[in-house]
Amino acid sequence: MSLSEPMDPHASPSGATRIDLRDVVVASRHLFALRHEPDRIPAAVIATLARTPTSVIARLSGAERWYAAAAIAGARASAGSYDAAASALAAVAWETLSTHAGIEPRARAWGWLIVAEISLAGGSLRRALNAAENARVALGEHPDEIMQQEAGALAALARALNGESGHARRFIDGASPSPAARVERLVVYTRAVLAAAEADARVLSDCAETLRRRSPVHDTAEAAATLMAALAHLLDGRVDEASAKATSILHATAYDRFPPVLRALAATLTARTLIARGDHLRALTVLHERSSPAGHVVCLESVRASAHLGIGWWRECLRATDGCLRMGHQHALRTLTSVSLNRAVALHRLGHAQAADAMFADGVHTALSTGAIVDLLLLPPGETDTLFSRAGEAAAGLSQRVRDARTFTPAPRRAARAIPAFSPREEVLARALLAGTTMREIAIELHVSVNTIKTQTRAVYRKAGVRSRTELIFLLDDIGFGGAARPS
Predict the structure, then answer these.
(1) Could you tell me if 37 and 134 lie in one domain?
(2) Residue 164 above 70 pLDDT?
(3) Is residue 483 part of a domain?
(4) Does residue 89 sit in helix, strand or coil?
(5) How many CB atoms sit inside 10 A of residue 371's CB?
């Protein structure tokens, strides 16, 4: 078989519909051999491995099973199929195979690095860190400088995303330039995560430019660079530019192929720019039916809570983040800051001063331990200053840092509009939409076709000035139309 040509996944010498195991093994070994030069791997090999069924792995044994599982998972991740990549890893008893005598140490390390990369992409930070450490252990006395660098970079990024800034900073400060583009990207990502937490717009902009220069045709790197630039603009007070950049990633053609954590970042940053502009309802629409990645390494619930604060729905803010508190230690440390701070403001506005002060203290101490102040910049400044005034000396230095870094004030929510002048038919339709009635059910009730209901629904949206049922619900609830049940 020529690795420069596509393999037929259904071909076999006997003509049966099955995968040729020899092809999978050869392709897997090829991926391992070119692990430091991924740009040389033929696209056909990646495509074939990516579409190889997980069941094939079980038909192999020992070292070949290890190679195939790692290669199939890595190929699926390269193709943007992260859930499928994780399922390929789950098909193998990694803890057992990692000590298999027939597996060469560098191959063990290679497999663990793929586990770490896919775990990071999905937000499983502890698994990513453990896998990176296992890669180092696997190498043992068989040094491979690039693999050692990659293991260190993956571990540092996992720690940075969790808010363990001291560990991540020490790695960044001591890191030597790597000849591997993938390692350099990981280092830039880690620098950017630290800069984002510290609200350092200049470093974020530098990271964005570095990524674009070093990875000009890498979709994920380009998207990450755009989001870095968007956050830098937001921190500089250039809210409209930030919104445009973040939205461009949320609507990108390759969006579904981005890692889950990057997709969540695009959604939350887009929502934050809308909140900064006072468009809290649209922010909630952006977040509607989206889920936080594992461990809430990017916490959509905390951003929903921010939108609820801006609207004045204090109890909704608390409800949105109740689940975060129930997660306990499974919740990422870094994003707990935003959860605590939002809840503190809501409790303050509800008149629960003692509970608000306790929750604010939790948020402040987490911010101090993680080096993160960005979440404090995105809170309503009036309430934040009041809570700081009651927080005591421990928070005084942080309070001044926040004042110095504050370049913009989140806009108040836009004034509620008058109830749209619906016709009697449109009012009936609007109330049905608010009640959660399906298009088909509405059509049957009104004795018209589903297409007619769709046309009339678009007219309702236009008259209300919204673009979706979710946005309509929030709008009509806000202006007192009645009967609206707020989605979360």
Answers:
(1) yes
(2) yes
(3) no
(4) helix
(5) 17
